[in-house]
Amino acid sequence: MDLPVWQEIYQELRSHGFTVITVALDKSPEDARPWIEKAQPTHPALVDTGHALADLYNVVNVPTILWIDERGRIVRPNDVAFGTDTFKHITGLTAAAHLGKLRAWVRGEAPAMTAEEARKLQSLPTSDDQQARAEFGLGQWLWAAGRQESAERHFLRGGELAPHDFTIRRGTMPMRGIDPMGPQFRQMLQDWVGGGRPYYRPLSN
Amino acid sequence: MEAERPFTIIDVGNPTMVSARIAGDRVRLPAADVQQALGWEVHDDLLCRDTMCVPVPPGSALVGDGGVDLGTLAALLDRPLAVDLDERAAYLGVSAGERAGALSSLQAPDFSLPDLDGQRHALSEQRGRKVLLVAWASW
Predict the structure, then answer these.
(1) What is the ipTM, given to two decimal places?
(2) Quick check: is A199 in a domain?
(3) Structural domain ending residue among the three candidates A74, A91, A121
(4) Which of A44, A123, A161, B93 has the most beta carbons within 10 angstroms of its beta carbon?
(5) At which of A70, A100, A121 does a domain end?
(6) Overall domain count for chain A
């Protein structure tokens, strides 16, 4: 799990004018609690049951990381980075590569991206993405009101509209009584990756 | 035609109970309820909120049968609308254009979310610091 690594990097770099904010896209704080309590973060560790962050930043899977500078500007748009090398065999990503770039940026040893590069690498939401998020929002409200069957219709509709949005397709599995690490997830992943589509989409640089 | 009955409109996560009539697959609600739930004032040829107004094209189905048509309203505002007629609830989201415009400005959209103790933290509180923002989940 990555949270202890984000806490370590926060401790290491905070004196350089740096913070970490983690946001859990979970159905309830209780789902995120054991992970957060184990990592004992001293940076803001937030919970986003309504996926407000996903809507604002077009987040379609986890983990997703962004770098934001002192003026509140995005200087590294949505990217994939892990704290550990657990998924290296799938992603080809090493934790060290991202942490190295992050350290250099925070210490002022290397610039982040230019605005032009950042815009080129951004992926912007489509109408279908936003319709999917409205379906998710309705489903999440219905689920919280105890209307699980009705909620499921909207979660499934959201997943049909934005099949690349795993915050909906996988993230709603716990609300649909499905194990998000179980056979239904593995089947979904196999169908997706088998069609030549990557599950993780790290930036190219 | 059914009488007006309770209906929930969720405006980007914020629910408001209004009264509405369902006719076929259309949801109609009084103009006062639209304003209460969404902040939009409905005039004959204009929709206005705060200082912003959107023209209503002639012949629009926005107002009829004594109520405002929710689907037409969402379409005029270019906002996604998810409706559950059986549950009498609808979610009005934010348009792709608005989100894309904000993101491509590269100004990081502000948010305020709770920690495990329910205390809210906003991104804007970190202005002056570099931020690593990490979205993760237990799933």
Answers:
(1) 0.98
(2) no
(3) A121
(4) B93
(5) A121
(6) 2
Which CATH number do you get for residue A22?
3.40.30.10
Looking up tokens 């502000």, which residue turns up?
B110
Would you say residue A160 lies in a domain? yes
How many domains does the structure of chain B reveal? 1
- The whole-model pTM stands at 0.96
Mean pLDDT of chain A: 97
Tell whether the model's pLDDT for residue A8 goes beyond 90: yes
Cβ contacts (< 8 Å) between B129 and chain A: which residues? 17-19, 70
Using pLDDT thresholds of 50, 70 and 90, give the confidence band for residue B1. Answer: low
pLDDT band at A73 (very low <50, low <70, confident <90, very high): very high
Considering the domain boundaries, does residue A43 fall inside one?
yes
* HEC per residue, chain B: CCCCEEEEEEECCEEEEEEEEEECCEEEECHHHHHHHHCCEECCCEEEECCEEEECCCCCCCEECCEEEHHHHHHHCCCCEEEECCCCEEEECCCHHHHHHHHHCCECCCCEEEECCCCEEEHHHHCCCEEEEEEECCC
The per-residue pLDDT for range B21-72, each reduced to its tens digit, is 999 999 999 999 999 999 999 988 999 999 999 999 999 999 988 799 999 9
Q: Which of B84, B91, B131 is opposite residue A150, by nearest beta carbon?
A: B84
Interface test mutation site (partner B, options A75, A105, A133, A153, max chain B beta carbons within 10 A) = A133
